[in-house]
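Students often ask why inverse folding is considered easier than folding. One informal answer: many sequences map to the same fold, so there is more than one right answer. In these notes we will look at a single instance of the problem. The structure comes first.
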């Protein structure tokens, strides 16, 4: 195994869902920018990125969010709280905006992208609203996966959290009128020394049980 491959695996063995954070240690702006860039560069279906990311560091806002998070201390004690909000519904503008960005970024005539845009719209726009919401939520989880990898490689601790009340999050964060809804939350920071969870063995399925080679 190459040194790079070993490093990649070691960072993943090192990370765990942190239960207690050191409130006195903060993630640097440089590292935070790298984590957010990893999220921005994440893959997404059709390249559409149907989500928005909120980075919450304001103490008062986080105190309001904690009761909507089953009282979990990671909400207030971590360095930053990253909220992934997916589009609960969308129309053709989602595709049109992407095509405009693609045209500008790669200097491609917009009209030459029409076929791709029509194809994407034909697959997405007629879906039921609940199917659209499920699809956009899945895209935000892909972005979450990229964030988890980035923080591990930076030796920054993290806690992905679904134990929240999305509707209350939407209200507190002003999302109700935006077309986005809270999907999942990621707390990041540095583990407290007294967090005994860090010393526990990682529990995963064996390779034989998890993988099938065809």
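Output (designed amino acids):
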């Amino acid at each position: 195994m190459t040194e790079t491959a070993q490093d990649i695996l070691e960072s993943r063995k090192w990370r765990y869902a942190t239960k207690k954070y050191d409130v006195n240690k903060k993630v640097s702006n440089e590292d935070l920018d790298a984590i957010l860039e990893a999220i921005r560069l994440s893959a997404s279906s059709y390249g559409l990125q149907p989500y928005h990311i909120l980075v919450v560091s304001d103490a008062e806002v986080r105190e309001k969010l904690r009761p909507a998070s089953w009282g979990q201390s990671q909400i207030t004690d971590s360095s930053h709280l990253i909220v992934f909000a997916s589009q609960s519904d969308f129309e053709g503008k989602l595709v049109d905006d992407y095509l405009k960005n693609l045209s500008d970024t790669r200097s491609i005539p917009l009209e030459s992208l029409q076929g791709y845009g029509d194809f994407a719209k034909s697959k997405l726009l007629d879906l039921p609203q609940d199917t659209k919401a499920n699809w956009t939520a899945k895209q935000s989880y892909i972005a979450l996966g990229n964030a988890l990898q980035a923080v591990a490689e930076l030796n920054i601790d993290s806690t992905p959290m679904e134990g929240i009340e999305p509707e209350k999050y939407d209200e507190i964060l002003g999302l109700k009128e935006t077309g986005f809804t809270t999907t999942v939350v990621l707390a990041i920071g540095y583990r407290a020394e007294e967090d005994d969870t860090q010393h526990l063995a990682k529990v995963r399925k064996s390779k034989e049980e998890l993988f099938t080679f065809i």
